Amino acid sequence: MYQEQRLAEILELLAEKKQLSAKDMIEHFQVSKDTIRRDFSILSERRLVQRTHGGIIPLDTSRQIPSFNDRINQLNQEKKAIAQKANDFLKPEQIAFFDVSTIVLHLAQRIKEPMTIYSHSLDNAIMLSSQDKVDFHLLGGKFYPKNRFYYALNEAELLEQISFDIAFIGAASVSDGLVSFEDESDAHLKRLALKHAKTKILLAEQDKWQKESKYILGPVSGFDYWITDQEPSPEVQELIGDKTKIIY
């Protein structure tokens, strides 16, 4: 197990148990005392936990990591329907990029075929690290707690060397035909993932239209497919053009 996968599982266990001891984690992961000490130190430095004598507790209630089931239950029916349509594009032995997105998170839950998946999402890591059929790669780096992703320049640049069969991208906002996000680092990583992707799929509900975020990823027309929850207006369809197939 990679260190970032172990850190993600520690956070999940902490959310459930409210406190963890180093002794219990040594037994749980079958690793050394020094390894767990380093893990606890990293989580403390990222301000995700509070160190105690011999263990850790949540930093505060606002920073606790919800369980996977809690995250899934927050999804509305529109997002679940989009994930179901996206599931039709999954094929055995694909190499895929899974974005930070609640829709993509629900898509990850549906995987039944052997695949290789890269992601910078903490929630995707928690979900997919236990999937025997998935060869999962978590891109590490600094943790951004608001949107729950990791980023480091050297990790992101690895994506330039990969020709993904398919890339699933969420959207913070879509305005005037442009997809944008709140974090510059997040947008940069997605841009690299899309660079050599053979099939590019945007997953975004209609309520993202006319919302605006600071950092532009690119035009909707740069995607092969846009999967959404209802038919866009004629004005929106004209703006996007016929290069992108809209599925609703």
TrEMBL record:
GO molecular function, one term: DNA-binding transcription factor activity
Cross-referenced Gene3D superfamilies: 3.40.50.1360, Winged helix-like DNA-binding domain superfamily/Winged helix DNA-binding domain
SUPFAM superfamilies reported in the protein's UniProt record: NagB/RpiA/CoA transferase-like, Winged helix' DNA-binding domain
Residue ranges of domain HTH deoR-type in the record: 3-58
The keyword Lyase belongs to this UniProt entry's keyword annotation: no
PANTHER family: HTH-TYPE TRANSCRIPTIONAL REGULATOR SRLR-RELATED, HTH-TYPE TRANSCRIPTIONAL REPRESSOR GLCR
Protein name as catalogued: DeoR family transcriptional regulator
